[in-house]
Amino acid sequence: MNTFTGKVWVLGDDIDTDIIIPTDYLALPTVEDMKQYGFSPLRPELAGQIGEGDIIVAGKNFGCGSSREQAPEIIKALKVSCVIAKSYARIFFRNSINNGLLLIENDQIQDQVKEGDQLTVTMGKSIEHKGKVYPIHPLPDNLMDILSAGGLVKAMQKRNGISK
Questions:
Q1: What is d(CA 2, CA 61) in angstroms, rounded to the nearest whole number?
Q2: What is d(CA 117, CA 135) in angstroms, rounded to the nearest whole number?
């Protein structure tokens, strides 16, 4: 079972794809070039503060807006270990899985954490915060296989014996 701990960054409800990565930066050549502008309309300093393994905790409807794949790619490029939100826009959810970004749906933890807190996540089982355990529903095996491989393309390469 995969367990990890990360520092929390708290965001609110309805964080749309224009907040995650504004359209002004989509013309940049790579996601690596774009990532410094992640969340800039909301908090211009945030992308530079997020550290590897950190966890974003948000409210409802995370990833609403356009279906641009760069939104989950930016979060993954910032090396966020997962996003925990009350709910997700469906296309953002699937784009995230396809790009290897773990999303966890939980409607309790947002009201308990403060920015800078630590969370421990046991994939498919629970979130722990200050000694309290919040159960989570596991994702189906096929989605976990995609996440474990690092995204849909890598999962299909592995399945078809053409891994690089």
A1: 26
A2: 18
pLDDT tens track for 95-124: 999 999 999 999 999 999 999 999 999 988
Angle, helix 90-98 to helix 70-77, in steps of 10 degrees: 50
**Which distant-in-sequence residues (6+ apart) come within 8 Å of 106 by Cβ?**
84, 85, 86, 127, 134, 136
- Rounded Cα distance between 23 and 123, Å, is 33
Asked whether the beta carbons of 20 and 35 are under 8 A apart, the reply is no
**pLDDT tens, 132-161?**
999 998 889 899 889 988 889 899 998 888
Question: Going from the N-terminus, what domains does the chain have, and what CATH number goes with each?
Answer: 3-159 (3.20.19.10)
Residue 1 confidence (pLDDT) above 80: no
HEC string for 104-123? EECCCHHHCCCCCCEEEEEC
